[in-house]
């Protein structure tokens, strides 16, 4: 999730991406993403195993910001909000 292009980034794990994005977009989740306006889905990846997804999240949270930006821009160079592509 991002606040805007090259803005604040939020990284998390969920078992229901559509519901979680809805919560973020509508300010229903208190915390970092609400405080910094992270409402745009600019990148995501899926995993079959929740534990694997959590390991990936923890690993990525240690990444430098530049690495995260490169990952986003490799698949979404325009920083489009990908929420609508989920339907």
Automatic annotation (TrEMBL):
PROSITE patterns: GIY_YIG. Residues 1-71 form the GIY-YIG domain. InterPro entries: GIY-YIG_endonuc, UPF0213_domain. Belongs to the UPF0213 family. This is GIY-YIG nuclease family protein. The lineage of its organism: Bacteria, Pseudomonadati, Pseudomonadota, Alphaproteobacteria, Sphingomonadales.
